[in-house]
Amino acid sequence: MCLICDLRSGHTPAAPDAPDSHRWSSRRGFLLAAAAATASVAAPPALGQVNVGAPSRMRRLVPADVLENAAAQQFTQMMRDAGRQGALLPDSDPQVQRLRAIARRLIPHAEPWNPRARGWQWQVQLIRSDQINAFCMPGGKIAFFTGILEQLKLDDDEAAMIMGHEMAHALREHARSRLAKSTATDTGLRLGAALLGLGDLGNLAAGLGAQLLTLKYSRDDETEADLVGLELAARGAYRPQASVSLWQKMARAGGSGGPAFLSTHPSGPNRIRELEANVPKVQGLYEAARRG
Fold first, then answer.
1. Which of these, 47, 82, 115, 133, has the minimum number of CB atoms within 10 Å of its CB?
2. What pTM value is reported for the model?
3. How far is residue 269 from each of residues 30, 129, 154, 222, measured CA to CA in Å?
4. Which of 111, 150, 158, 166 is the catalytic position?
């Protein structure tokens, strides 16, 4: 299902194929940030109400198009596998429609954070699984698990915060940076050889896609995703305070054998305090979006 087509036509597109339950553990997407600016209450709000720095230069070791193609292949295979197991929910499912409606409100605000997002073929899928998890792969491939919606009893505002957070990982190119940093002596060198015509980019893409399934982000990555996701959701007219209630719910779901989501998105009082400090910065964006 391509949300780019949906946004242009106003129709809900057909769904793609589907993921394997053994590979459904945490993964996330990513890509670029923009400069901060200020805006008056009367004027249209400027990008960058939250304060995030420039993306890592290390990400340049991994070509964006190679990684996005690898992610698209991996996502398609995962959805195909989920479909075979009867775990991929159909387009007609109310929860699928709900998630896609949220995405339609967030996606128009993605491009300023990453110009590549204009060409992404956004997809949103829902997988039947008790896992409390969600992810966005490079190039805008989003998946939620029913467990995160049902067990946390997320309202639309809280679900939008999850989606905004995962989209922010993609827009800030966190996966690209982490892959470059963690495999610079391996992937980086092979990428260089491939780009010089000395290697096989197809095999390289397959290897990158596999790595996306187990990728973990740094604390700084998580903070950036929280803040950029908060701003995306506020611009989509979703209540900023929901970011706090979401992570309070996530914290209560933690503990021994807690959600897979918490293995790569650790919750805690510092995270909640950071969000509480940034809610006022985007409140005006939310109110403007509501009026609009």
1. 115
2. 0.76
3. 25, 28, 20, 14
4. 166
